[in-house]
């Protein structure tokens, strides 16, 4: 058997056309294998970014359950839940019945970095537990680092049900309505 | 089995797997004889990683990535499974150990400038490893899928969302959807269990191959700055003359130190136990107080201290610039002196960064960054009375949330200035203006307080720090 490496020549293509072809073939096929394996997975992993957020309305309770007054925390199902999500498919909003006909709602996410703000009824303020952001009852910033007012959520009443329009996180990207 | 047949069996195996041919030369390769206790941190980091792999596999046997079940499975691991709490504890403290050791190892390498020629890529692969380890620490914190985990991922998504152009894409990629939920946890699980460990293992293999290729560096010598033209031969020559076999002459120190590390990890998980689980991961539950694990707390403090205009720059800049600077460091300076005494800037940088880290971490722990939602009403002993307008004013301090941020006589939060002596410092008008208009970190109360309430509060505040005889206003203004 000849174990000697083949002689190098200036033009390997012409010296060893078969060898060159096989080299190219192997490299090419390896690339094909790689692509075939990875493309579906990459597409699958990236899919959530390309999904257009759907406008989803979620019922949060009957009209008569809400009294005119301060904000209450309402919970509803995440706009795009997966079957196994359980309690983690819950989203929340601060909802207030301002008058008989008028509702107002805010996302519970602080506009600073998204922590959950709490409504404190007496001083009529939303307070954030993370870095001390504070908002007035109209959602405008009262103190602390938040750069923008709380995100408003659209509310409507349909067939005696109060419904809120879900919005995606991160909120910093959502433009104010 | 007789000794002889044992030997024969071993020879048969050795002949086939090539232990003596391939592994033994690696083990006994020559290392500088002055490579002593300074060099134990790298191997200890590796040891901590092994702890993570083993305990992680154990945890994965019971951990259910997805929704509600995740929390239940964590509770099962912590409370029910035999030795579950111990294994979870080891994984938790192992993570801390790994982060800490990786950083110490890096500081040591930096101080001794081991990253210079020809070991540039040793350093670069190490920097990548460090960042992936931090990624592991971060995703791991989220896999503890409780209230804190949910809110940390929200915060992380908000931070990622601030990246110019690709922010939203990045955030939604991270969350696996539009909101934090079931697909987020499975995504983080895959990152934490498959992707990042694979990168780490590949990184470690490369890191070790490079160590074998270039040899362990010597302690810096002031008289021998690195010169790429001559370094390799000089190193080879010295190592042949004075080197000692890695196994066992140098390695026993690594093994001893690693034993100590494993002992500490074990002791912490036995005596301190794994971190307690917060309430279940419900993204609509507002009763959370999200705080990162200790190694990221400095960053949390920075984010709280920054003026808003700088924030986005820092959020995105610190990790990216940090990585770039560290990664390219050996390309900027790969020759010259290695001795710390000749590199005062390097020493200064290390001291400055460690001080900043310590100060910010302490700050992160100590400073109340937020209002204290759980404050109690002021007791009569502090107010001085339990009826009358004074007591009412004191009560309003609680109702209106003033006490969330202000401390009076040891009761109340610390987000705002203490008001124990405020009666001595400010006049009635000053106080009214501040309450009505707010300012800096204080909300304006003008619209949420009646003038009666305002006056009761002001009257009460004016008595603070003033002795009872002078204090009670004769005619509280209405
Ligand atoms: S997240 Fe609310 S103040 Fe920072």
From TrEMBL, chain A:
Cofactor(s) required for function per UniProt: [2Fe-2S] cluster
Lineage: Bacteria, Pseudomonadati, Planctomycetota, Planctomycetia, Planctomycetales
Assigned keywords, A-Z: 2Fe-2S, Disulfide bond, Iron, Iron-sulfur, Membrane, Metal-binding, Transmembrane, Transmembrane helix
Protein name: Cytochrome b6-f complex iron-sulfur subunit
InterPro entries tied to this protein: Rieske_2Fe-2S (IPR017941), Rieske_2Fe-2S_sf (IPR036922), Rieske_Fe-S_prot (IPR014349), Rieske_Fe-S_prot_C (IPR005805)
UniProt key word Transmembrane: yes
A Pfam family matched in the record: Rieske
GO cellular component: membrane
Segments passing through the bilayer: 27-50
PROSITE patterns: RIESKE (PS51296)
Rieske domain sequence ranges: 58-164
CDD domains attached to this UniProt entry: Rieske (cd03467)
Gene3D superfamilies (alphabetical): Rieske [2Fe-2S] iron-sulphur domain
A molecular-function term among this protein's GO annotations: metal ion binding
Native organism: Gimesia aquarii
UniProtKB/TrEMBL annotation, chain B:
Assigned GO CC terms: membrane
Ranges for domain Cytochrome b/b6 C-terminal region profile: 236-368
Signal peptide from the UniProt entry: none
Pfam families, alphabetized: Cytochrom_B_C, Cytochrome_B, Cytochrome_CBB3
Residues spanning the membrane: 37-64, 92-111, 123-143, 189-210, 255-277, 313-333, 345-365
KW Zinc (keyword) present: no
GO terms assigned for molecular function: electron transfer activity; heme binding; metal ion binding; oxidoreductase activity
Name of the protein this chain belongs to: Menaquinol-cytochrome c reductase cytochrome b subunit
Upper taxonomic lineage: Bacteria, Pseudomonadati, Planctomycetota, Planctomycetia, Planctomycetales
